Amino acid sequence: MCIFCKIVNKEIPSKIVLEDDDFIAFHDINPTRKVHVLVIPKVHFDSFQFVDPSIMLNMTKFIQKIAIELNIDKGGYRMITNIGEDGGQEVSHLHFHLIGGEKVGRLVRERE
Ligand code: 5GP
Ligand code: ZN
Question: What does pTM read for this prediction?
């Protein structure tokens, strides 16, 4: 079972922000900014590339709610999902990073 499925099953502890029947948001164990939260569906999909698109409707609503809960909705934040090897994905369970709580700056092109 993957590490995030274990978090869903509470086999691994995590600092949960909010959870409902289908999704869970928890603080990243290694935060890169003041706010760094991961949002996942409870059902396992390897990445965004393999997600059932119908899930994204409620996941979008859940993410918007989490941003309000974290008080980053007005100031803004960055949302990232890494996909596969070239995308730098380390945990193969679809997750969205919500990063903010401070200015995270422009995401500039790495090659310019
Ligand atoms: P990825 O590179 O796959 O997009 O990001 C995986 C993220 O999961 C990383 O930011 C990493 O710090 C976080 N992470 C890995 N293992 C755990 C864990 O056991 N608990 C929590 N809360 N976060 C984790
Ligand atoms: Zn999983």
Answer: 0.96
Rg of the chain on CA atoms, in Å:
14
Report how far residue 72's alpha carbon sits from residue 104's, in angstroms, rounded to the nearest whole number. Answer: 12
The model's pLDDT over 20-30, given as tens digits with 9 standing for 90+, comes to: 999 999 999 99
What is the per-residue pLDDT across 68-90, written as a single tens digit (0 to 9) for each?
999 999 999 999 999 999 999 99
Cα 74 → chain centroid: 18
d(CA 48, CA 83): 7
Structure tokens at 71: 């008080």
Active-site residue list: 95
Residue 85 CA: which ligand is closest?
1
The answer to whether residues 45 and 71 touch, using CB atoms and an 8 Å cutoff, is no
Residue nearest to atom 20 of ligand 1 (CA): 29
At 94, list the tokens.
């679809």
Mutation pick for ligand 1 pocket among 3, 91, 97 (CB with most ligand atoms within 8 Å): 91
